[in-house]
Amino acid sequence: MPLKAMILSDSHGSLGSKAVRSLMNSDIVIFAGDFADSGTYDLISAYSNKLYAVRGNCDCGLWAEKLPRSLIFRIEDVTFYLIHNRDEAGYIPEGIDVVIHGHTHVHSDRTFNGIRFLNPGSVSRPRGDGTHYMIMTVEGDRISVEVENC
Q1: Among the residues of 2-37, which ranges form H helices?
Q2: Predicted structure pTM score
Q3: Residues 96-112: pLDDT tens digits?
Q4: Whole-angstrom distance, CA of residue 35 vs CA of residue 42
Q5: In DSSP terms, which residues pair with 29 in a beta bridge?
């Protein structure tokens, strides 16, 4: 049975109703940093069955200190590396299939040297063509990704 994951980033304290509905309908939530406040972190945590999250450059305070700067995890047979700013990733550990990052506020889906790089964009502060998040389906070692407008 495929797993449905919502990928989002750069909420900066604001989530639209469409994003909240997607949170509630996802098996997994992956957040690539910049909640910007504890209230948004608490809201996303409350609606998430399973949350993978990292700290962004706008995540400050005691609530944010528990968030790692980067995180490696597996969903099904796919290994993910999660970081807020891809430019700070440095060396990507061996065995990574997908890098998920945010920071630029522009969504992208690219493959480089056999590694897929996903950036969901921003759910609140657009740069480029609007506000976005991604819905990813994972089954075994296969993933499919759709970009959603907020």
Answers
A1: 17-24
A2: 0.95
A3: 999 999 999 999 999 99
A4: 10
A5: 6, 51
